[in-house]
Amino acid sequence: MAQRFAAGFAILLAATPVLADAQAELEFARSILSDLQGPSFRDNVEYCGYIGLDDAGNLVATEAVRGGTDWCDMTAPQDIEIVASYHTHAGYDPNAWSEIPSGGDMESDEDLGIDGYVSTPGGRLWYIDTEDMIAFQVCGIGCLQFDPRFQSAPEDNIQQSYTYNELVRKIGN
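User: That's the sequence. What structure does it adopt?
Assistant: Structure tokens below.
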């Protein structure tokens, strides 16, 4: 299953029309989110920002903005061409659906016409494709730093991908 998904994600990356190399963008996002996992868990807040291209076509990121336990507001910069958003989910909470992106996560990216990356307390990394309104789990539990309090729950039944409608049915908004 993991190999089939990895191959499917590689095809998705090859077919995704972005100005920056898709693999480079993914690794750039992964690096940013890796650095934010610890502070996100420690402070129990989301951190968010944008990935874009500068005038020379280089990948750049905005400084991470500190949000709350289940929100993060940021202002779109004018000096870069935004290609994606990034954000962490806060620390582990057994009563929150923080291991998957929310419908709201997808909606905010869709409104700007960009894709997104989301990291979770379990150390998962998600890619949100707003053209098809689907979220793909790039890598599973522990591929990024995870909250030491994290406990995997079999009843959560986290899938490898979700459409927008599936997310809304599973967790609301």
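The helical segments are 2-15, 22-43, 103-112, 164-171.
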